[in-house]
Amino acid sequence: MHPRSNPLPILLTIIGTILFITGGAGGQPHGGSGVCITTERAALLSFKKGITSDPANLLASWRGQDCCQWRGIRCNNKTGHVTKLQLRNPNPYMSALSGEISPSLLSLEYLEHMDLSSNSLTGPHGCIPQFLGSMKNMKYLNLSGIPFTGGVAPQLGNLSNLQYLDLGRQYYLYSADITWLTNLPLLQYLDMSYVNLSGIADWPQKLNMVPSLRVIRLTSCSLDTTNQSLSHFNLTNLEKLDLSLNNFNHPIVSSWWFWKPTGLKYLNLHNIGLIGHLQDSLENMTLLRVLDLSNNYQNCLALTGSPSNLCTFEMIGNLNNLCSLEILDLSYNYMSGDMTIFTGRLPQCSWDKLQHLNLDSNNLTGTLPNLIGHFISLSVLVISNNNLTGTIPAGLGNCTHLTILDLYCNKISGSVPTEIGSLSKLTSLDLRNNNLSGGVPTQIGGCSNLTFLDVSNNYLSGVIMEEHFEGLISLKKLDLSSNKNLKVTVNRDWFPPFRLEYGNFANCQMAPLFPAWLQQQFQISHLDMSSTYLKDKIPEWFWLTFSQAIYIDISDNKLSGSLPAHLDGMAILELNLSSNLLTGPVPSLPRSIITLDISNNLFSGKLPLNFGAPTLATLIMFSNQIGGSIPESMCKLQGLFDLDLSSNLLEGEVPECFPTESLQFLVLSNNSFSGIFPSFLQNCITLLFLDLAWNQFSGTLPASIGTMTNLHFLRLSHNTFSGNVPPEITHLSCLQFLDLSANNLSGVIPWHLSNLTGMTLKSYQDLTTGDVIVTQSGNIIEITVASQFEEEWSIITKGQKLRYGRGLQYFVSIDFSGNFLTGEIPSEITSLCSLINLNLSSNQLSGKIPNNIGIVHSLESLDLSENKLSGEIPSSLSSLASLSYLNLSYNNLAGTIPSGRQLDTLSADNPSLMYIGNSGLCGPPLKRNCSTNDSSIHTNHRSNRKEFEPMSFPFGLGLGLVVGLWTVFCALLFKKTWRIAYFQLFDKLCDRIYVFVAVKWASLTKIDED
């Protein structure tokens, strides 16, 4: 019997042998010996030393002996050599690695793959490191999105094994010669997007010498496009070509090289300035899957001078052979045509393959045909910004793969089809800005993946109920706005299945109570419920639920109640509570708020001592009952550019510490502010709009008023300013509106009014369409401003008080009425050719009306009444074709009243009122006729007589009476015969009167007795 042997040592030996063999044959993932090669590890650590910043912690794991285990490193399983360095920035929108690419990488002799893209790395002097050309084994090199400068290193042409080269998104690189590419015989992928190649005329020929290329991306390279023909085409392997954002601007030639590759699957010619007809250029690209010809509207401009009906979809040529087509983008070409005809021209062999069709921003007309239902693979259909009419076809319900359907900004009518509910994969439905009517079908609730729903600006009606929303579990954005007959009615206890991030219900009906279902929508960042007929108190939960919202608008309702004492816990950026019935004091504001509008409410009390909103830019509080003074804390609002506190009960002086660098709109009218003209305004060089009217400001207007050179609107009326009008006011070259009426100003009207070039422009830019921007080019000044002109201003013009809102921005006016101004009307006032209103009434102006007043063709209202003007009325007044109001009453004007044209149509009820109080005037419409010599008589009379003085009349009357009486008395005293005759005549007259009275009395007595 043999002794029993112990099998354990044998078993351990076998296991060890197996582990050794598998480790050497590839069981070890990163190196044959379990650790990387020492020299290569040192090279990587040297590279790490050159990194100055690593906020993404890409190199945090670069510790320990085995570099093959480090993040971004891959080693050969057999040799342990580093073959791959993958350090791409995982988030290109945030910084990752910063520093310099170390030449120590040359020690990685077996490196085949290197990706450093989207990092802030550089080489020597900011250039691509030349030593990269010595890494002979490199097959894959991605340096895209790295901010290199200078020229592309031609040494990259030494990488003879290179198959993939990405230098894209290089906005500061250039290359004057790409001959080095011809030394890369294995190159299949080339991306040099945004590298400036403008100096290379033969770039197509150079690319043609790299026949292995499969992908070429040369987006926005400023390519020279003069020579696009090749004698022999070698790029037979080309599958993907992107030449977008280059400016070809040459008539299309079918022999151009990029029409040649028959194996092409992807062709992007977006925004390259194609000119002419493609004809049959595309017919040989039978394998083409993606075709992007978008944003080539210059094609139409070049051929027709403007996008017109002459520029049709026939220009894209023959598509019949594109049977593999999956994506077709023809957007932003402004080509016209009938939608039904165009749909029929799409290759029928690709109807079941087409996935993406973008026809945005063209001039398509007609209806969307039911034929569209045959495109059963469609996932994206965009036909927005066209002129489609008719209804949405029911056939769309067959496109069950649709994820995006954009038909906005057309003229589509009818109702939303119920078949929409069968599009269960739909994520975005945009039907805004059409003529849709009727109700929203409840079947829309079947779109369970819908995240974006916009049916705003239509004529939808009916009721939106819980049934519409029940299946919309993914909904994030909902816009029902501007459908005034659409009513949202749900039960008070309804719990919505979605969590909105954006909700717009403006100009819908959600009345009268505040919707309770919104209490669960705490993820909303944008909420607009303006003009929704709400008549309720703002619920207490409102401010907590929407504490993280950045935009809230509940204006133009009848909401009541007061605001919480503190709103500082909110993240709001823009809050609009205007035109409601809110009461109570103004609370401390959220720190984050930028725009606040609480105008047209019933807020009272004083402004908060601590506004608590350091970034506040727009503060609109007009038409409330806010009292007290402006607190000093408002001076801390250094970013304030729009402040409107008008029509309140504020008083006291305006603080001199107001922010001056950013202020552009300051409206303090209709309060009880006092003191002198605020001196801080002289430092407000960006100020565009200043209104201090209807207050109690006094003192003189300072010369420094002329430093506000960007001012367009200046209204200081109805105060008690005194002294002269400072001549420096003519330095305000941008001024379009100047109102100094109803003050105590004296002196003369300043000369040099021609410097007010803002009143000479032929057109004025809309001031209500965006952030404030002021630009000047020649004589054209353009202004854009976001929130002003929502208020209405009372302006005295055409003899009455008119209210202007947005129209005020186009109103060019000078009003000096109701002061004590003397002297003549400056003749330079006639150079203000855009003037609409000129009111100099109720002053003490003298001299003549400027003869050439008729050249101010834009003038609609002219009031010079109640002055001391003399001379004739200029005949040029009849040239004012736009004139609708004229008042020259109560002056010293003389001569014949001019007639003709517009003057014969003014004040049709009683035209003489325009000229009343001018005793020297004659002719129609006055009843005083002019004789044949009147003209010369009046002229001589006016030239010799002195101006009428108010005190001369009673003095002359008394003097004449005394002189007349003494003349008669002296004649009777010294001429006896006259004296006897006078008294005899007097006696006879007395006798006759006595006899007449006696006889009359006797006859009356006799009648009484009878």
UniProtKB/TrEMBL annotation:
Q: How does it sit in the membrane?
A: Single-pass type I membrane protein
The stretch of residues making up the signal peptide is 1-27
Give the transmembrane ranges.
953-974
Xref: InterPro entries:
Leu-rich_rpt, Leu-rich_rpt_typical-subtyp, LRR_dom_sf, LRR_N_plant-typ, LRR_R13L4/SHOC2-like, RLP23-like
By what name is this protein known? Uncharacterized protein
Q: Where does the record place the Leucine-rich repeat-containing N-terminal plant-type domain? A: 39-76
Keyword set, alphabetical order: Brassinosteroid signaling pathway, Cell membrane, Glycoprotein, Leucine-rich repeat, Membrane, Repeat, Signal, Transmembrane, Transmembrane helix
Q: Where is the Disease resistance R13L4/SHOC-2-like LRR domain?
A: 312-530
Location relative to the cell? Cell membrane
GO BP field:
brassinosteroid mediated signaling pathway
Which Gene3D superfamilies did the record assign?
A: Ribonuclease Inhibitor (3.80.10.10)
So what family is this one in? Answer: Belongs to the RLP family.
A GO cellular component annotated for this chain's UniProt record is:
plasma membrane
